[in-house]
Amino acid sequence: MKKRDIEKKAKEVSDVSMEYQLAHVIFACNKLTEAVVKNINETKRLRLMERVNVARTDGDRADIRKEMDALKNPYRIYVEYVNDMPEDGARVVRLPDSNHLVIVLPRKLLEKSLENGWYKSAEAVEKLRGTVAHEIGHIVLNIAKLMENDSTRGSKDMGDNASENNARIFAEELIRLRKERNSKLRNDPIMGDVF
Predict the structure, then answer these.
(1) What is the pTM of this model?
(2) Considering the domain boundaries, does residue 100 fall inside one?
(3) In whole numbers, what is the pLDDT of the chain averaged over residues?
């Protein structure tokens, strides 16, 4: 490949990365909640084994084994922007028959934040980051409930005041800590040039 083509690919990756606010936090969230999901799935597997033992037909046993096989899928968290979703419609949804959670975000928030591959509004970027952090809060604080929820409403089903308030507190603290860390990095004589 020519250098120019390689640089173009690097720019494409860089441009797309702008869409994924707090991506490093999503990786950390994935790591922190993975063990919980493994425990949840082990409990489910044991319940399903009991059901296999009392199943009456081969068809019933096959259906139960299919459920057990789905538990073997790796646990992952994804981010997806959706058209025609209201700005307050963000949520976390578990994909059916999987160990995958999707942070579903309104594309409008992204469009207000980015233009031609760069940030266009500090207020819009702040709102997008706050929304992502809020949904990450739902994952960290309510992982067991989310892994049991088959509704397309996902975290919206946990929309009680306590759950929403806890996710808000989590988001505010997460963003505060991120800003504090970034400030320290920029002011560090050794790391300042890197960041």
Answers:
(1) 0.81
(2) yes
(3) 85
